[in-house]
């Protein structure tokens, strides 16, 4: 009895199975750990309706790693093994143009509106602090409603948590406005 056709079929089926599997040691991330909106996680201080050229404002973000934002208590750092979250400001260009930016806590991401929020082991929070010297005179107005998104990306455990937020102190139309004279 010739086993060659049977062996060819088995090898063919085995190759299909092997091609369809992830390579050993590689993990494919298709889903997210959660998406949520948390109001007012971004603070701009001091908030005034009128500033003078040369005044300094601070943008601060402090996200506790252990929180109940997603409906149950979670430790984002433990769940993701990520020691730096990424924040994307959808509307920060209006605030940065013509002004001087100093990053006090965190670092610049790959684009002008991305910033890295390092995990602070001492207080268990992901933190970003930006100082902006307001050099450009004029009216400033930018939307803030859920346009700033915080990502905790899973570095090795493949979890992704997305927190949409906004600036505290925005008006009823979700616009943040002030004037620099």
What's the β-strand tally?
Answer: 15
Q: Which structural class is indicated by helix and strand composition?
A: mainly beta
> Helicity, in percent?
10-25%
Radius of gyration: 23 Å
Determine the N-to-C terminus distance.
95 Å
Order of helices and strands: HEEEEEEHEHEEEEEEEE
Q: Which geometry do the CA atoms define?
A: globular
The average pLDDT value, as a whole number, equals 79
**What is the quaternary state of this protein?**
single chain
Poorly predicted ranges (pLDDT <50, ≥5 residues)? 8-28
Estimated share of beta-strand residues: 35-45%
Q: Counting H and I runs of at least 4 residues, what is the number of helices? A: 3
Main beta sheet, described?
A: 10 strands, mixed
Give descriptors for this structure.
181 residues; mainly beta; 3-stranded mixed beta sheet; 3 helices; 14% helix
How is this structure best summarized?
With 181 residues, the chain is mainly β. It contains 3 helices and 15 strands.
Question: What are the SSEs and their pairings?
Answer:
Blueprint: H1 4-20, E1 34-37, E2 42-45, E3 50-51, E4 56-64, E5 66-67, E6 74-75, H2 76-80, E7 84-89, H3 93-96, E8 100-105, E9 107-108, E10 114-120, E11 125-133, E12 138-143, E13 148-153, E14 160-165, E15 175-180
Parallel strand pairs: 1-14, 3-15
Antiparallel strand pairs: 2-4, 4-11, 5-6, 7-10, 7-13, 8-11, 9-10, 10-11, 12-15, 13-14
Explain what the structure shows.
With 181 residues, the chain is mainly beta. The strands form three sheets. Strands 1, 2, 4, 7, 8, 9, 10, 11, 13 and 14 form a ten-stranded mixed sheet that branches. Strands 3-15-12 form a three-stranded mixed sheet, with no helix packed on it.
């Amino acid at each position: 009895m010739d086993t060659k056709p049977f062996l060819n079929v088995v090898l063919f089926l085995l190759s299909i199975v092997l091609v369809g599997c992830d390579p050993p040691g590689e993990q494919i991330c298709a889903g997210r750990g959660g998406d949520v909106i948390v109001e007012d996680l971004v603070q701009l201080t001091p908030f005034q309706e009128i500033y003078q050229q040369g005044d300094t404002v601070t943008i601060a973000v402090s996200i506790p790693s252990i929180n109940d934002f997603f409906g149950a208590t979670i430790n984002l750092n433990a769940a993701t093994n990520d020691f730096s979250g990424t924040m994307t400001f959808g509307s920060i260009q209006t605030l940065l143009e013509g002004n001087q930016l100093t990053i006090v806590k965190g670092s610049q991401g790959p684009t002008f509106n991305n910033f890295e929020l390092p995990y602070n082991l001492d207080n268990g929070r992901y933190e970003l602090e930006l100082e902006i010297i307001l050099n450009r005179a004029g009216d400033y107005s930018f939307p803030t409603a859920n346009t700033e998104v915080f990502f905790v990306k899973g570095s090795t455990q493949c979890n992704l948590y997305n927190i949409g937020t906004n600036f505290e102190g925005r008006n009823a139309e979700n616009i943040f406005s002030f004037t620099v004279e």
